Amino acid sequence: MALGLARPPASRRGLAPEEKFVASTALSLIGLCLLGWISCNAALPAFALRSAPLLAVAALFLNFRAFTTLFRDPTVRALLLAQLLVTARRPGRLGFVARYSGIGWADDRFEHRQRTRFRIDHGPLDQRLLGAYDRNDQPARSERSVTR
Known about the structure:
mainly alpha, 7 helices
């Protein structure tokens, strides 16, 4: 998905193949962030975010010839391999953790998931997370310290 969204505009520029690869990846990730921000602030339905993979695949198929030409370049293949190795390193290192201890981490994960679902589904403002915690990320006005 990180390559597909901005692939059409990046392929029209007079850039070297490795620059096209980096530009399309960076612009696609910026576009995904903007799509998430707009859909959250404009209270768009969840389909707006779920359409991003479809748009990315459509952009790749529309520019399939340029996409395959891009990966014939050895520098682009080296960049892609390096990125895959860096990306695979994290789950690979997590495989060496013998035991995940502490219920606090599990609760934290569930709380983050509930916060995400609240924002995506535009949940009720009085929703409690894990049945106990206030939904608001900000401290109450009375708890904020004012420094001048």
